[in-house]
Amino acid sequence: MGCGRVGAAITVSLAKGGHSVTIIDKRAEAFEKLPPGFEAQTIVGQGFDRSVLEEAGIREAEGFVAVSNGDNSNIVSARIAREHYHVPKVIARIYDPRRADIYERLSIPTIASVRWAAAQIQFLLFHGKEEQRETFAGGSLLHYAVEAPGHMVGRPVAAVEADGEVAVIGIERGGSGFIPLPGSTFQQGDVAHFMVTADAQARFHTLLEPVAEDV
Prior knowledge:
alpha/beta, Rossmann fold, Alpha-Beta Plaits, five-stranded antiparallel beta sheet, 10 strands, elongated
């Protein structure tokens, strides 16, 4: 639902991947964003109108994505898809980051574009792009991949973790990888994969800094 730039791009990508896709928008001219000659089922209407959804094939759908410009429209249509039609995979884009947590409690994954963009910009201001991998849960969780600095060699993996905020979820070593155990230590050349909450980014980078005995 929603044939803006994001909706159009998703539609084209899914169709090229061999999926059957229908796109809904309340404005017929929105479909002009689709490439010339691109064939996809397009339906003009409100994405939370059940008759429109059923015309689009919601009863047989394996996924529903709501990416219109309105938070209310996205979440209402997403809830109808999930709760009434029991679509297995439902995702909604939310502009207001304050709403994202509320909607995720409804078991509807949300992409909070404002919060995600803010987290990405802050990251790129202060850190190398090569450390970044991806974000999750609308930008509230971040995945970092960092080559272990020399001062961390021989140190316990637990020394750079913080309960509920920073966790080492995997280590690349010698061409393979493993999930660290409680007694695991860093070795030269390790690449550590971290999961970090957005609010703990400063704490994360403090944990990576040398302690007094290292300097």
